[in-house]
Amino acid sequence: MWTKSDLQKLVQEKLGDYLFCVVSNRQPYIHVFKKGRIECQRGVGGVISALDPIMQTCQGTWVAYGNGQADRHVTDNQGKLMVPEGSPRYTLKRVWLTKEEELGYYYGYSNEVLWPISHTAFRRPIFRREDWEHYKKVNEKFARAVMEEVGNKKAFVWIQDYHLCLLAKFLKQMAPAQIITAHFWHIPWPSYETFRICPQRRELLEGLLANDLLGFHIRYHCNNFFDVIDREIESKIDRERYSVFKGTHETLIRPYPISVDFEGINQIAESEDVRRHQETLIQEFELSNLKVIVGLDRIDYTKGIPEKLRAVDRLLKNHPELKEKIVLLQIGVVTRLHLHEYKDLNDEINSLVEEINWKHSTDGWKPIVFVRRHFSLPEVLALYRIGDVGIVSSLHDGMNLVAKEYVSSRSDNGGMLVLSQFTGASRELTDAVLINPYDRNQFSDGIYTALTLAEEDRQGRMMRMREIIQHNNIFRWAGKIISDLLKFKFKDDEIKYKMSDPAESFRLSYPADHSKNQRAKDS
Ligand code: F6P
User: Fold this and answer.
1) 45 CB under 6 A from ligand 1?
2) Residue 45 pLDDT > 90
């Protein structure tokens, strides 16, 4: 089993004098003004919860967009500061964007083109030429920020997500002999039928193929990527090596299922702090004597939040005996509110909550409590631990770390996970109650099953899921990617990449029990 110290050892032994640099749009820590003072908050989202523990272990530099109102007040003249506050472990270098750049690159191209194209949630992408121009310009800006850190050194650069498709290409143009890059794609990769509508598809693909290593969560996404390359780019696909040659440049394509810091979550989940938060939540939301169903999602149309609310409605219709016995406590994290899709979704959720509560509520009880406020990590873990059932209902999701966090936090083996079959996580957590969020009856039956499972069955399932996550933890995910990255040699070295058996690479990336079945399903 990979541990934090294994990763630390790997980095200390192999990284030597090279710079290790992570680049993402979203920053791990944001500075905001609160009650006249500057407050440092941890960022939200899968990228942050996965990579912050890694960077705390590996150190190095994290380059990201500084979007906090107070961010400039705490950085030096190169936009840098050490984080986390209180126990600094690594450098955060902030890239500053103008409002126009943020609008075009982040809201526009990233979230109105690449996000809907990559998720099967039936939203139409919006292509605007000026957004694409901003996207290119901002990717180049990120490249210059990385180069300021690289200087004359050699660097391993680990790029995150769909905001930075062109970054590797810019970096390789700026310093071909000094940089080796890996890019991890945190969301699903679409089929050719979907991707081919994108007018800039070739530029995006060429940008991604400038990387030495390109990672997806699951093999299914790797195969979708190969299909797209096959039809769009003049290149040679080597199915044996699982790689693409464009000219003389080779990009290795690999599945690396992302995970969470299982041991770290367990430790915090058992703390006195979390126990106190559990009591506060129970009191604040009047949860005692109720079976509590919990949910925590960014308010995004891919997360299936209206579907979840409607499934609770259907559950109460089919099982009126559950009235006054259950409650859904749903935390919604507001994002991307500048986009009308997200504003509309917020409105839809508000009216659904009101309608369903109005329909079913009785004196002193309502079935849904919807909360929009920032929850700290201990509060999130407290929420999970009071949840008799945790629901993740994404319509499509690369992995979904809420599912893995929920299971990891239950060191008491309590609770039960209801999980959408359209998440990457469902391929590992097959002991969850798997649901199709589009099918309201089946979804509500799934919640009913989770609430009424026989105790022995429920505990057994939770224990098996916990074992899987404990083994396939975040240090394993990062350890695999970083060890693969460190095998590449810089241009002036003789052998570019020392190939290991590709089948071995898959075995290491997949949970032993599921790799065979999964391969069969994917093929
Ligand atoms: O998990 C996919 C992801 O894009 C992350 O990279 C990101 O942190 C998260 O969704 C949240 O999105 P945003 O940064 O736009 O709020």
Assistant:
1) yes
2) no
